[in-house]
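Format is sequence with structure; example below:
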Amino acid sequence: MVQSQRSNDKPTGLTASSGYQVGVRRTLSVHTEQMWTLLLSKQGLNVWLGPIESIVAEAGEQYRCENGTSGELRVVKPIQQLRLTWQPHAWNSPSTLQIRLIPNKNGTTTISFHQEKLEDVHRREEMKQHWEQVIVELAEMIARS
């Protein structure tokens, strides 16, 4: 007998209130302050946000990247957290992106990307791969510095 999935089983990443969500985190050999500086540098912004010259790291600030990705910073806690809306040009609605920097006792930093309000399971998988690649690129930037 083949068991079928019950209709009330939720797909991975589906929440009751915010659609699909995904989280990716990794511990990097960098101090939290240096990670924060990298995230807000032109090179760092281009890796995780999109092609943009700079951003004003203040709640309420809106941004627009050269590729059409746009949004608004909602929460800025220096050296700790960014929370913003993030909407690539081709998306029908914005998602919410949260980046957290968690200091560890040994001088390393855990960086966490959490994104919610994703359209479907396919978008969730796409963004999981995207954030994993972003972390790889940030780690490579740290290794070169």
About this structure: The chain is about 30% helix and 30% strand. The two ends are 58 Å apart (CA to CA).
